[in-house]
Structures are given as C-alpha cells and as structure tokens.
Specification:
Blueprint lengths: L1 H34 L2
C-alpha cells in the first residue's frame, strides 16, 4: 500500500517538474525569438 502511494506521489512530482520545465523552456524560447534581430 505504502509502495503504491510513493509511486503515485513520484508520478505527480515528475509531472509537475516536466510542466515547470516546459513553461520555463517556452518562456526562454519566446524571449530569444523576441530579442532576435
């Protein structure tokens, strides 16, 4: 039971991390595109 909860929490954390990384990547890409001469 505890093992399943740990896997579930790990899945949530990984999902959130990928979402955050996607947002950071999109923002930096936008900045690069906007600053491109």
């Amino acid at each position: 039971m505890l093992y399943q909860i740990m896997i579930y929490l790990y899945g949530i954390i990984v999902h959130l991390e990928t979402k955050i990384l996607d947002i950071i990547f999109l923002r930096s890409a936008k900045i690069l595109i906007l600053n491109f001469p």
